[in-house]
């Protein structure tokens, strides 16, 4: 290793950080700073990749330093996820008029999330079949085999439990433990606990309005505090994106990506197809899909680059309320539920494609109607409890493949293209939650169409 080269590489990254900081001081918009971080990261990462190659010790040590910014940013997002999910769900209950459309709104949002996930699974199946994906044809290197072994080890834990037992484990026995994110299903546990507290609040509001007012004031204060912390973290986004994209591109094995090019293309064909269905749903709600695309683009870009549905939650909620004209309660429900239920990309398309791709390796015909129907149902059920930050798609894949009695280890061959595909999956997850929110609000006739059709320039969502 050449220490001076590492110092030069780190110094170069810090110069780029300085450029983004200068843009912030000059009040350049949040979205433009994120775009700048994305572009600079890709270019810098590509330069490092071309200069050092992926096996360079110098590059590995440089990336280790880059991770202080990149991985540090992700850890900040993970730090705030559980408090954010908890208080967002709880605040949603305080923002509804007691009894008014509450059950209907929650039911519509949950139905849309699970329904679109089932539809996403069908699209993933169709794309995998159309591209004739077959996991047995893929070459496994040492990294892929190591990843496959790790997945098998995790799947063994899942396989030891029946489906009813897995469903039972979604119920939190210790909500404070779930607030630490200790379990794979901690997110749904926090959602359930917050929902119980929210329902309890509605009961107090009906019978003890004075106490309810005090509770609401406290919840609103905590919500404001947590959202302020989130805003501080979001200000770091351009820097985090810069470091993350630099690391991703610099360490990418483009040869391996080329070998898996068909899977990458098939994945993005499915992701784009499902996003177009989101636009169709928006149109069926009597709203302009182009307007939806324009007003959600910044939030979807953030989700794409950060690969964190949970990290995008504040922007998700703000976009729904300030740009799409949805009520606060609906936006909070849709955004928060969408973190752990019915993620169209991570819990829908991805595990369905993997199952179809792996099925031929064990002699199963992926075109068998019974196999397809069972797979769609399993995907929809397994979409409950998927984490909103990192690893959610892997957990969903383990659940689905284990339930379908398919070998989990073959999923390890995709390790080299995971970051590339995960960006698109995350953006689709967030779009799915916003689509669910728009649909629920429209059915309840609560969409403010003046806001929806208003000038985007007067609706900033900058961090």
UniProtKB/TrEMBL annotation:
Main localisation: membrane
Subcellular location field: Membrane
Record-annotated membrane-spanning stretches: 6-22, 34-52, 72-93, 105-131, 185-204, 225-245, 265-287, 337-359, 371-389, 395-417
Keyword Transmembrane helix: yes
Keywords: Amino-acid transport, Membrane, Transmembrane, Transmembrane helix, Transport
Pfam assignment, any one: SDF
InterPro entries reported in the protein's UniProt record: Na-dicarboxylate_symporter (IPR001991), Na:dicarbo_symporter_sf (IPR036458)
Topological relation to the membrane, as annotated: Multi-pass membrane protein
Family: Belongs to the dicarboxylate/amino acid:cation symporter (DAACS) (TC 2.A.23) family.
Name under which the protein is recorded: L-cystine uptake protein TcyP
Gene source species: Bhargavaea changchunensis
Lineage of source species: Bacteria, Bacillati, Bacillota, Bacilli, Bacillales
């Amino acid at each position: 290793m050449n220490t001076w080269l590492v110092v030069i590489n780190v110094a170069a990254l810090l110069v780029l950080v300085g450029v983004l900081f200068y843009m912030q001081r000059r009040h350049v918009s949040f979205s433009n700073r994120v775009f700048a971080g994305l572009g600079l990261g890709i270019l810098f990462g590509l330069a490092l990749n071309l200069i050092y190659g992926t096996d360079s010790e110098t590059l590995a040590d440089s990336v280790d330093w880059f991770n202080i910014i990149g991985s540090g940013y992700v850890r900040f997002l993970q730090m705030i996820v559980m408090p954010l999910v908890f208080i967002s769900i709880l605040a949603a209950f305080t923002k509804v008029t007691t009894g008014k459309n509450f059950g209907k709104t929650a039911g519509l949002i949950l139905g849309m999330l699970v329904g679109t996930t089932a539809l996403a699974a069908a699209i993933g199946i169709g794309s995998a079949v159309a591209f004739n994906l077959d996991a047995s044809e893929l070459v496994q290197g040492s990294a892929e085999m190591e990843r496959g072994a790790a997945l098998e080890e995790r799947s063994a834990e899942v396989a030891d439990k029946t489906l009813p037992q897995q469903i039972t484990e979604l119920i939190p026995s210790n909500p404070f433990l779930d607030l630490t994110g200790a379990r794979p299903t901690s997110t749904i546990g926090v959602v359930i606990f917050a929902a119980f507290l929210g329902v309890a609040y509605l009961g107090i509001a009906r019978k003890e309005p004075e106490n309810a007012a005090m509770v609401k004031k406290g919840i609103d204060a905590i919500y404001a505090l947590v959202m302020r912390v989130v805003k501080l973290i979001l200000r770091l986004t351009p820097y985090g994106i810069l470091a993350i994209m630099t690391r991703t591109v610099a360490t990418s094995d483009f040869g391996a990506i080329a070998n898996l090019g068909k899977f990458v293309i098939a994945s993005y064909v499915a992701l784009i197809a499902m996003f177009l269905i989101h636009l169709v749903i928006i149109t069926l709600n009597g709203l302009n899909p182009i307007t939806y695309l324009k007003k959600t683009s910044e939030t979807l870009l953030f989700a794409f680059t950060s690969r964190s549905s949970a990290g995008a939650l504040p922007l998700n909620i703000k976009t729904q309320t300030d740009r799409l004209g949805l009520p606060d309660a609906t936006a909070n429900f849709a955004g928060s539920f969408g973190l752990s239920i019915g993620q169209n990309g991570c819990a829908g398309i991805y595990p369905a494609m993997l199952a179809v791709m792996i099925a031929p390796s064990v002699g199963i015909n992926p075109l068998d109607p019974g196999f397809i129907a069972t797979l769609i149902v399993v995907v929809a059920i397994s979409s409950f409890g998927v984490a909103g930050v990192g690893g959610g798609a892997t957990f969903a894949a383990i659940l689905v493949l284990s339930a379908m009695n398919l070998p989990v280890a073959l999923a390890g061959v995709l390790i080299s293209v995971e970051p590339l595909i995960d960006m698109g999956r995350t953006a689709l997850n967030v779009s799915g939650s916003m689509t669910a929110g728009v649909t629920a609000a429209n059915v309840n006739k609560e969409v403010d169409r003046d806001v929806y059709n208003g000038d985007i320039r007067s609706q900033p969502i900058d961090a």
